Amino acid sequence: MDFSKFVSLLEESSLFFPNVATLTDPFEGFLSRPTVQQITAVPEELDESEAAKRKRIAEHNLSFFRTGRQLLYVSCWHENTHESVAMWDLYLKSGEGVAIKTTLSRMKEAFADNPEQIHIGQVKYVDYEEDRIPFDNVLYLALHKRKSFEHEREVRALIMNPSGAAGGLVSVSLNKLIESVYVAPNAQEWTHDLIKKVVHRYGYSWQVKHSGLESNPLY
Question: Is it the case that residue 151 has pLDDT exceeding 90?
Fold first, then answer.
């Protein structure tokens, strides 16, 4: 995240959860073709009246999922044991930014006192022309993406909110959430120092590290 978003995080003790419908991938929150076909399938042996009834039920179900998409809000995280050059390049356009390191257990603890019901899950990457998506829980809509996004290796925190807003802040315990803070690879030394000072000014003692991508070879 860029520096301004990091300061906002410290100031608000909250993470921003955008609505799924506002994300850049137009397939976000939609079912795959085989899933829609499964929902709308009408057995040939049914008489005309029963077939019409099945079609009405199918349309009602699809309408439910269309509405459900508007209720889903997510906080997106990259899962990896190492830093990713691609993620730095994709989500930070300057050297004035940071990456937050956490763990799944920390994330769960950080949201434990929030009155909202927070769900956390790994995103599965599927072929929307070939693969089925489970539809017994509307949350699955936000936990599937196209295979083209596999490089993101996402873990998402999710909430449902009927407000219909483009996004909102969700309170979180930052001390429980954050293990350490990494400063962008191409950040200047003064940026690193400034981020350390800001962290301490807000009363936190996390390690603030420069990205390991800037380290030098041994010889």
Answer: yes
The Cβ-side half-sphere exposure at 121, using a 13 Å CA radius, reads 16
Residues contacting residue 39 through CB under 8 Å, at least 6 positions apart: 31, 58, 61, 62, 135
Q: How far is CA 191 from CA 3, 78, 140, 186, 212, in A?
A: 9, 23, 39, 10, 16
Helices (H), 13-73: 33-40, 48-71
Residues 123 and 144: beta-carbon distance below 8 Å: yes
Mean pLDDT of 187-200: 94
Give ∠ CA 154-90-86 in degrees, rounded to 5. Answer: 75
Q: Which residues pair with 124 in a beta bridge?
A: 144
Instruction: Kindly report, residue by residue over 98-145, the tens digit of the pLDDT.
Output: 999 999 999 999 999 888 889 999 999 999 999 999 988 899 999 999
**Whole-structure pTM value:** 0.88
Does position 94 have pLDDT exceeding 80, yes or no?
A: no
Show the tokens assigned to 51: 């077939």
Question: Of 92, 80, 154, nearest to 123 (Cα)?
Answer: 154
Structure tokens belonging to residue 194: 């400034």
Give residue limits of the domains in the chain: 3-213
